[in-house]
Amino acid sequence: MKQDIKNIVEYSNNKRSKFFGLFIQFLIILSVITFSLETLPNLSAENRQLLNAIEIFCVIVFSIEYILRIYVAERKFKFIFSFFGLIDLFAILPFYLSFGIDLRSLRLLRLLRLFRLLKLVRYNRAMLQFTKAMLMSKEQIILFMGVTLILIYFSAVGIYYFENEAQPEHFSSIFDSLWWAIITLTTVGYGDVYPITIGGRMFTFFILLIGLGIVAIPTGIISSSLTKVVEEEPENSFKK
Amino acid sequence: MKQDIKNIVEYSNNKRSKFFGLFIQFLIILSVITFSLETLPNLSAENRQLLNAIEIFCVIVFSIEYILRIYVAERKFKFIFSFFGLIDLFAILPFYLSFGIDLRSLRLLRLLRLFRLLKLVRYNRAMLQFTKAMLMSKEQIILFMGVTLILIYFSAVGIYYFENEAQPEHFSSIFDSLWWAIITLTTVGYGDVYPITIGGRMFTFFILLIGLGIVAIPTGIISSSLTKVVEEEPENSFKK
Amino acid sequence: MKQDIKNIVEYSNNKRSKFFGLFIQFLIILSVITFSLETLPNLSAENRQLLNAIEIFCVIVFSIEYILRIYVAERKFKFIFSFFGLIDLFAILPFYLSFGIDLRSLRLLRLLRLFRLLKLVRYNRAMLQFTKAMLMSKEQIILFMGVTLILIYFSAVGIYYFENEAQPEHFSSIFDSLWWAIITLTTVGYGDVYPITIGGRMFTFFILLIGLGIVAIPTGIISSSLTKVVEEEPENSFKK
Amino acid sequence: MKQDIKNIVEYSNNKRSKFFGLFIQFLIILSVITFSLETLPNLSAENRQLLNAIEIFCVIVFSIEYILRIYVAERKFKFIFSFFGLIDLFAILPFYLSFGIDLRSLRLLRLLRLFRLLKLVRYNRAMLQFTKAMLMSKEQIILFMGVTLILIYFSAVGIYYFENEAQPEHFSSIFDSLWWAIITLTTVGYGDVYPITIGGRMFTFFILLIGLGIVAIPTGIISSSLTKVVEEEPENSFKK
User: Fold this and answer.
1) Interface test with D, best of C25, C32, C36 (most D CBs within 10 A)
2) Could you say which of B16, B204, B225, C189 would form a disulfide bridge with B188 (CB–CB 3.0 to 4.6 Å)?
3) Where are the domains of chain C?
């Protein structure tokens, strides 16, 4: 019987295991939607009760799943402290913790419920490929992230010296200028802060011509690593 | 004679078929322009009549084309329920449906007229290549679209906790925050909602550095699939 | 002597020809700066006279260059009606045309002076490579430009139906919506028009996830063509 | 003993050298944070004194490092006028210069302290790879930077003629229009200036469809050069 449960709970190729996986995934999505709906400002007491009921149901199922996973694991302590074991625990912990605690700290505990979303990783091959690609070129990503950060910092210092006098409310310190630098160099450009002096505009012109190529490098590294990871995998691993 | 019509109506390499194809394409474009002009708010009665006349003419030609296509098809039912058969039907159906119906629902029926634009696909090799490229890496696109959606959701939850108190009108719930997340991570950055707290800005900083690489992945997959599809096709298929 | 002039005027590898080329390039840049400065709103009469003097000097040199080029050309008519021959003519024509004409149409004639910038093409290897890359994948660029335009049109129609009632001043017709569609799908996002209804925002969400990959395709085609063109050229062609 | 200091100061593989390197890097980061904090507008006298103390400590360590580097260098003059020698000098010079000078010019001297950030280059392999990649395709980057600048200028002139009359405050001259052109073609789109006339919007539509591909070319060249540089390096150079 233990083998039976193991075949269902742990990801394998039989029908019951797939149904179980889909059911858990459905509950994760449901739980996430519930979590989102609870943040709506004008929620009636009835709806709030319904959302609570769904939440309790999800936690019960997740708890049973967690216990079963421990039950079927060969080396129980290894599972409990493994990456997925901890995620499964964190997905239900906030609910049990919130019983004996006053309401103030509830808000932050609710946030922990989002760990459930990480449970999806177990079922999402893309997420595993992505993690593999990140690890493959970890050092390069860190190194060029460093270059990007230096560029952003230089841009912030530059614009601070050009715009501080003209717009002391938007460029009051280098920390404020850093906000401008990240929003500009990623080309988001909200338009809440922008240079108005001629010097500041020419500096922006220059930084944009130089900088876009640099900011795009980490993106390029991730993409090319990912392509390698995907190509290395056997073709049929994407067929069901 | 049936063979003659078939040679003209179905895409082949003789001159009359090409002329027919260009004529239908011209009518599709004309029909789309008519459709756009009808939405102009201050249209005189005369112009409206003219647009109506063009619309009727287009529908008549498309109807004749549809009947001829059924006439020349070997297996008529297969054509009628094929992708292009249904598009040809939907391109004329809204016009005939709008006769017996009151004016309210007309608005939505008008929208169905846009199916005509899909008729262009029949004549557009690029569209076919693009469809082929999408199908080729369908599973990967879906998987990474999932990763992108999870990232967008995490960003929305994060910014909600940072900005909800400071700007309850813009970040009133996670659903509102999702709007911010998609507009920021695609670097559109309208500037209608943006973080103002230090925590929210640092979170945006972090999310942008991490997220741009992830959001760009589905785009990269489509591009590289397309390159493969284009290269596989014989060179001369682009010559006319 | 004709051979001597030919060696100087036409691009060749001797020193005098290179000096001549640099001198003409300098005059083109000078002429463009003059052109820009003339648009400054509060220009003193003195400065305006100075700019005029520079302009006359440039036109005289360009005229001499044009006459010399005709003089040294083997087949004079072929040169006059060649691409570069016409550009050389258009670079000086506006000046001579503006003598006998009243002031109103001057504005448009001034614009023609910008043809001078195209003279730079003659000296710019990158521009030639770029033109070659464009011609190489001309058909594909046109085809996918078509797909991009269809996507932009669909987006415009969709947002029109969602936002027209809520914001009739910004989305008054499909033509206004087209402005929104191009600014959003290129991720410029000025923030002058953006959806405010839930339907419109969800539509934008959907269109951005799908659309960014498509809009990026023509860019990708140009880039990969260019890489091929650059690689095909002998390495030493970039050394001077 | 000189050899001992040399082994520590110059980048080598023993433990003491690595610790020394990390210590200097830490001081650079500390110095940069101090520099940023000093720009905060409402700083108490106490905090200002603390920041000054840290700054003096950093300068002393950097000065000792500089003297040691000269001491261990084989050819002292060559080191002093080398790239890294000058950076090490400029990193401490502003501090010593600011003693005998009145407070006004201090602001600019403070800016020179940022040269310290360049000291990080010595320890950052990514920065060296990036510099190598830039040098490798220097000529191409300059050539296509030229094409990009011509495109930006054309866009600025075009929008000037369309929008100058409608918005004389935003598009008062071609120089103002250049600001619009760079912000639009890099897709930053702050939203401080945007076209409002139909002609200007159609021109923007056209320029964006054509221009995004061109502006992306220098970025593409840097990325592909970098990929080559990274691949050429022996794999183990990234392992420690």
Assistant:
1) C36
2) C189
3) 2-123, 138-232
Domain B2-123 sits in CATH at: 1.20.120.350
Between B203 and B5, the more confident residue is B203
Q: DSSP for A100-145?
A: SS-STTHHHHHHHTTHHHHHGGGG-HHHHHHHHHHHHTHHHHHHHH
Task: State the CATH class of domain A138-232.
Answer: mainly alpha
Collect all residues from D whose CB is shorter than 8 A from any CB in C.
139-140, 143-144, 146-147, 150, 153-154, 157, 160-161, 164, 168, 172-175, 184, 187-191, 194, 201, 204-205, 208-209, 212-214, 216-217, 220, 224
- Say whether the ipTM exceeds 0.95: no
**D121–chain C nearest CA distance, Å:** 29
Q: Which of A144, A204, A212 sits opposite D126 (nearest CB)?
A: A144
pLDDT tens readout for residues B118-150? 777 666 666 777 778 778 777 777 777 878 888
Contacts within 8 Å (CB) and 24+ apart, A174-181: A174/D35, A174/D36, A174/D39, A175/D36, A175/D40, A178/A152, A178/A153, A178/B205, A179/B201, A179/B205, A180/A156, A181/A152, A181/A153, A181/A155, A181/A156
Answer yes or no: same fold for C2-123 and C138-232.
no
Helix count and strand count (H, E) for chain C? 11, 0
Q: Looking at the predicted structure, is the pLDDT value of residue A216 above 90?
A: no
Residue A239 predicted with pLDDT over 50? no
Residues of chain C contacting B33 with CB distance shorter than 8 Å: none
Give the pLDDT confidence score for residue A225 in this predicted structure: 74
Point out the residue among D41, D218, D223 whose CB comes nearest to the CB of A172.
D41
Is the CB of A190 less than 8 angstroms away from the CB of B190? yes
pLDDT tens by residue, D162-220: 999 899 999 998 998 999 999 999 989 999 999 999 999 999 998 998 787 777 777 77
